[in-house]
Amino acid sequence: MRTAALLQTILMISSVLLVSVTVFGEDSETVISDNVTWTGEDSVEGAVRIVDGGYLLIENADIKMMAGSSIHIDEGGGLTIWGSTVKSQTPPTAIASMGYWDEDNISRFKVPGDTISGPFQVEMVPMDGDIYYGDVAHIGDEIYNLNGSSHTFNFDEGTEDIWIGLTGYGASPVSVGSITITTQSGSEITTLGSELESVNMRGAGTPGFEIHVEGEMSVKNSALIGAQVFVDGELSADDATFDRVGPILVGDAGKIDLWGSSTSFSGSLDDHDIRAGPYSDIIWPESVSGSGGLIDKWERRISGQTLHLDAKYVILRISGLGPQESDQEIFSDENGTAYINGGNERVVEIGYADGTVWTESATIEIISYETGWNPQTSGIGNYGGGVVNLSWSDSIVLDSGTPYVEWEYLEIPEAYGGPLSDSSKNIGQSMPVLAGLANRGTVAALLYFTCDNTETGIEADIGGYQQARIDPGESVEVSFGWRHTQTGEASLTCRILTPTQLVEDGAFGGGSMTTYTATWTEPVEDDSLPVLPLLAAIVVAMAIAGVTMLRRASDAIVEDGDNSEYSKDE
Predict the structure, then answer these.
(1) CATH no., domain 405-521
(2) With a cut of 50, which residues of the chain have pLDDT below it?
(3) Residues pairing with 466 in the sheet
């Protein structure tokens, strides 16, 4: 009994430790599969995984997330942060310029000179791992070239607050990791970049920990500092502060719901607070504040977008692409695939800091879509359906504005060997054949078909390729003759010749059809001549000969009558 009681006590203590301990060893993972609450001041190192059915409540707590730590909320799991602060041990502490050169949008930060007596120096250093190279500082009308690992500015006594503008080489960012003010007396004051008052500058650095949301996460009356957040589930925030957390990355299946009068973003590490997919669900009311200035509330982006066509080497024009609303020409490859923007990522929507929203309205225009069924000389024009809107789907199929041809019938008329007739054809003679074709597509097609002897597979003698032009929704009949050189039963198989530009032979229809069997015979030959026709021919010949002889005799008498003398014998 004592052994059983001791074992039960050990199991109870172990279970409590598994669900309540919040300090973890390096590279460890703690799994939460039940209801767990964290309170007070503590730190987390390693990974915390909230699995399906698990729920973590961080309430009235101050949680420090060690460098490289993470929280994973699996589908079916939940996390609520209530009245607490969850912050990185190593949050980003630098700021960086936004790349604009004009006076209104230039990035700048303030040096508090009015609080300093006497002359002083300001040493500016970039963020870790960065240097100044070809960068420029602007103070009033004066320009200072920045090169190297730091730059020092000298200011005279009586200098008031100083705004230092920063522009990089081209449009590259210029970072400020910190500034150190040294006074005439030798005192030094160092201020991190993230603590400086700045305009049109963003946060810079690496987030200290990650949160992956596939289930549900709620932040209420709390602050999240220095985290990288990925949302493929649902994140809701009520009176929450996101400091150096942006951009929050929301996938196409993710949803972010912001509300509350004091929910705000600050210090985003890019020029937007939320980066979403084209179909992410974003709820951002007017009461929620973004980082402001040149930092947008959100951007929607898409990458790897492709168009798929039935033919290769189709030339298309994409107009109104991205925020610059640029134009580009692309073409389909051997697989009929064309890549929008070369497959590179682009912005398709921006929610600006002032509350306005820009949305891409790009179009696709067919420049050249010619095949063997619509050559330029045919007058049919391009296939493809003309101009269409470019959607945000990853994969777009362009299959409109094309023909689709099918066989309706291929038959020998009854009078020449059809199924209800016993007649046949002699070899060498021409057998009439009727072909019925229909176009179920939306544009015309100028096509050809050829035929083979079904039994031998040898090309049949039908007088060459047969041509047919078929308008959309139309059925046509083509008649031609078939000559066969062997006796016996035979049938004819005809196939439509499809364009070589097609990726798949059957994309425009086509196929083959076979006639029913026809009978071919030898011509009838007879060596004996018919008697009656022969006798009639002889009689006619004799009559002609008699008439000829009489005519000659008459001519001779007339000639002799003209002579005055002639012999008795004559």
Answers:
(1) 2.60.40.10
(2) 1-26, 416-422, 527-529, 531, 556-570
(3) 449
Q: Look at residues 112, 106, 139, 287 and name the one whose alpha carbon lies nearest to residue 195.
A: 112
Q: What span, in angstroms and rounded, lies between the C-alpha atoms of 27 and 52?
A: 22
What's the residue count for the chain? Answer: 570
Largest pairwise CA distance in the chain: 182
Tokens of 396: 């777009």
User: pLDDT tens across 29-54, in order?
Assistant: 999 999 999 999 999 999 999 999 99
Residue 286: what pLDDT?
Answer: 94
Task: Name the DSSP letter for residue 502.
Answer: B
CA neighbor of 29 nearest in space, from 74, 62, 87: 74
**Would 94-203 and 405-521 be classified into the same CATH topology?**
no
Main-chain dihedrals φ then ψ at residue 536, nearest 5 degrees: -60, -40
- Residue 555 CA, chain-centre distance (Å), reads 105
Residue 321's CB is within 10 A of a number of other CB atoms, namely 18
Q: In DSSP terms, which residues pair with 16 in a beta bridge?
A: none
DSSP string, 137-191: EEETTEEEEEEES-EEEEE-TT---EEEEEE-STT---EE-EEEEEETTS-EEEE
- CA 245 from chain centre, in angstroms, equals 30
Instruction: Report the DSSP beta bridge partners of residue 189.
Output: 181
Q: Who contacts 298 (Cβ-Cβ below 8 Å, separation ≥6)? A: 272, 273, 274, 275, 276, 282, 284, 349, 350, 351
Strands (E), 429-539: 430-439, 445-453, 466-470, 475-483, 488-490, 492-497, 512-514, 518-521
CA distance 319 to 362: 5
Spatial distance between the Cα atoms of 50 and 72, rounded to a whole number of angstroms: 6
- What number does CATH give the domain 94-203? 2.60.120
Helix intervals (H) in 44-172: none
Q: In what order do the strands lie in the sheet with 162-167?
A: 142-148, 132-139, 162-167, 107-111, 198-199
Nearest Cα residue to 277 out of 238, 230, 318: 230
Distances (CA, A) of 97 to 93, 106, 137, 178, 353: 14, 8, 11, 14, 17
Query: What is the residue whose two structure tokens read 């196939």?
Result: 495
Ordered DSSP codes for 367-383? EE---TTS-GGGT---S
Q: Dump the DSSP string for 316-335.
A: EEEEEETTTTEEEEEE--TT
Contact 256, 250 (CB under 8 A): yes
Cβ contacts of 493 within 8 Å, gap of 6 or more: 451, 452, 453, 454, 512, 513, 514, 515
d(CA 425, CA 484): 9
Query: CA 193 to CA 188: how far, in whole Å?
Result: 16
Structure confidence at residue 114 (pLDDT)? 81
For the chain, give every domain's residue range: 18-91+206-302, 94-203, 306-348+355-397, 405-521
Q: Do residues 446 and 378 touch, judged by C-beta distance below 8 A?
A: yes
Q: What are φ and ψ of residue 124, in 5° steps?
A: -110, 130
pLDDT at 464: 95
The whole-model pTM stands at 0.80
The Cα 380–Cα 395 span in angstroms is: 28
Of 422, 203, 367, which Cα lies nearest the Cα of 294?
A: 203
